[in-house]
Amino acid sequence: MPRYRKTIRSGDVIEIEEYFSPRAIGKDYPRGANENLTPEEQKKVNERQARKKLARLINTNFGKEDLFITLTHAYRLDYDTAKAELNKYLRRVKRWRTKQGLPELKYVAVTEHKAKREHHHVIMSGMDLTAAVELWQQGRVMISRLDPAGEYKGLANYITKEPPEERRRRWSQSRNLDKPKVTIRILKSRPRREKIPVPAGYKLVERSWYYSDFTGETQYIRAVRPGGADYGGYGGQNPEEEETEANSG
Q: Is 13 exposed, middle or buried (0-12, 13-18, 19+ CB in 10 A)?
């Protein structure tokens, strides 16, 4: 049975999975592990996968010179109107950047409206803070430059804390975002339970083992280049001491 290593590089973060699987690389197979999940369990699986995808997207495209903005409306609006106002704001930002000779705008945006007054969380290319605030024209603005971490999993989790309504996307994004780099290769023989080595120049953030009907027994690590902590924090524990046996999802 072949053993595979999947490596995902997103900015300063690297994730590595090793697993045995009878399935051939490049072929599609039904994900049998999800067939017996309840709707609520499937929802949680989808949320975890979406947050991983968003974190990788942010890590790949944004860093310490870029902005994290929360734009709040002065009055209650319905969801569609709030989204329309956000799009107007982004168009104003694009025009401002063009006049300033800045590169094309990159952004990821999430709109929340269930628990509080409608507001938007936006991660976008760096620019003058005063201009970014004044271009909103709708209400309160909270703005800061991104933490120089290179790892924004905690931030991705924070801005997706409100589950999306059915048939609505969790976030919107500019079309010019780069994708994480994913490679898969077959490994030569190595002891089954030997730990995946942490790549040189990286600090281990997470190590775990879990079982999946799709990938079999899987070992996983996540590591980040030194220079900052996860936006949401590591919990003050040593990842080497947090090895867990968990179900996939």
A: buried
Whether the CB-CB separation of 123 and 62 falls below 8 Å is answered with yes
pTM of the model: 0.80
Q: Which amino acid is at 144?
A: S
Q: Positive or negative, the Cα torsion across 119, 147, 56, 94?
A: positive
| Every domain of the chain and the residues it spans | 3-36+178-247, 67-145
221 phi and psi angles, rounded to 5 deg: -135, 150
What three-state secondary structure class fits 104?
coil
- Which tens digits make up the pLDDT trace of 178-205? 999 999 998 876 666 688 999 999 999 9
CATH numeric code, 67-145: 3.30.70.1910
CA distances 168 to 51, 79, 111, Å, are 15, 11, 11
Name the one residue in this structure whose structure tokens are 């991705």.
Answer: 156
The DSSP bridge partners found for residue 71 are 120, 141
The two structure tokens encoding residue 16? 């590595």
Rounded distance between C-alpha atoms, residue 77 and residue 85, angstroms: 10
Exposure of 208 by Cβ count < 10 A (0-12 exposed, 13-18 middle, 19+ buried)?
middle
User: To the nearest whole percent, how much of the chain has pLDDT over 70?
Assistant: 78
Q: What are phi and psi of 197, to 5 degrees?
A: -70, 145
Nearest of 147, 143, 95, 149 to residue 120 by alpha carbon:
143
